[in-house]
Amino acid sequence: MPPREDTNGAGGASSASPSEPAPPPPQQVKGKGKKKDEKKDDDLSEEDQALKEKLELYVVRAQDSDPGVQKLALESMRQEIRTATSSMTSVPKPLKFLRPHYGTLKSYFETMPDSDLKKYMADILSVLALTMSVEGERESLKYRMMGSEGDIGSWGHEYVRNLAGEIAQEFQRLQDDDVPMDKSLMELVQQIVSFHMKHNAEPEAVDLLMEVENLDLLVEHVDATNYKRTCLYLTSSSKYLPAPDDMLALKIAYEIYLKFGDLASALRIALLLDNKLQYVKQVYTATDDLLLKKQFSYIVARHGLSMDIDDEITADENDKEVLQEIVYNTKLSEGYLTLARDIEVMEPKSPEDIYKVTCLFF
Question: Do 155 and 196 fall within a single domain?
């Protein structure tokens, strides 16, 4: 019988005895973290690596003693960030690559003298704070207030939304400390509302103005393309607001409808307001069209509001009488009978009669 093959190594040596010391663990290679970083850099594409190196160079040159070099570096950095944040579905690459340098740029900003360059740097820090600042610090708003006050929309929707959220937090802090809102902060609110209204984000504009308790500013920002959506959101929101905020939201919707001549919609809102007679009469007096006033009268009658048609609404006695009859539902029964005759339902009909009439149309 052939000998069994030795599985314990050459020469048939037996396995190590328990008394023998275990082999030492492999030594950790020095600079392992550095190798990981190098590997991470190796994972970047050539394009991303070039962008990373370019941004790092901008960071260095932004701290140069030569103002000309500083300005060129800051403008180049601004351009890279603006291009990347114009449409943000994930964290843009420039923000990722600049994350390690955020603290450096903040520290250098504190040492800069007041100048346009410092404002440019503040603009950049405001955008970087979008993803890098500590929650609750409101650094994006802080640096924005110290920046160049340029077009906020050029930095993208997410930046504007983030600013709006930080403004709401800042306003709450001011309220708690019983401090009035700064004029420059309100100007920034106006910029954000204008941006939202131009980019089909009416609910966000309304929410911001509600947060800072200046909803009346909304009227000047609506136009013919968005007033209906704005008023729809206002009327829907009013159902969930406490008094007197609910009436304020409805009143703003009423004013917007009047501004754009949508009188029937304005009347519907007027009937929901406190002191509704005053607003209803204002709708009547906004037009000289008798047919429109008849329509208003039918709406008022359906709502069950008792009101007198006076000379302020119409000076013509005949028109006044007609409108008053409609408001009082005097001829409501007559109107129903006229409708019944028009659709031929005055006499009872059997199902066969209805089917026969229907079949005539096929």
Answer: yes
Residues 61 and 127 grouped into a single domain: yes
| Cα–Cα dist 64/86, whole Å | 28
Shared domain check, 119 and 93: yes
pLDDT at 356: 62
Q: Residues 128, 164: one domain? A: no
Q: Alpha helices of the chain — where are they, by DSSP H? A: 32-43, 46-61, 67-85, 93-98, 102-111, 116-132, 139-145, 157-176, 183-198, 202-211, 227-238, 245-259, 263-270, 276-284, 290-303, 317-327, 332-342, 351-359
Radius of gyration of the CA atoms of the chain, in A: 36
The answer to whether 263 and 292 are in contact (CB under 8 A) is yes
Q: Give the pLDDT mean for 305-334.
A: 92
Q: Looking at the domain assignment, is residue 69 inside a domain?
A: yes
Whether 126 and 92 map to the same domain: the answer is yes
Global pTM reads 0.79
CA distances from 123 to 76, 114, 116, 118, 355 (A): 13, 14, 11, 9, 74
Is 185 inside any structural domain?
Answer: yes
- DSSP state letters, 255-287: HHHHHTT-HHHHHHHHTTSTTHHHHHHHHHTT-
What does the block give as tokens for 79? Answer: 């351009």
Give the C-alpha distances (Å, rounded to integers) separating 320 from 282, 304, 324. Answer: 16, 19, 6
- Of 124, 143, 162, the position where a domain reaches its end is 143
User: Domain range spanning residue 190?
Assistant: 151-216
- Give per-residue pLDDT as tens, 230-272: 999 999 999 999 999 999 999 999 999 999 999 999 999 999 9
CB atoms within 10 A of CB 111: 8
Q: Following DSSP, what letter does each residue of 82-118 receive, concatenated?
A: HHHHSS-SS--HHHHHHGGGHHHHHHHHHHSPSSHHH
DSSP class of residue 16? Answer: P
DSSP 8: S
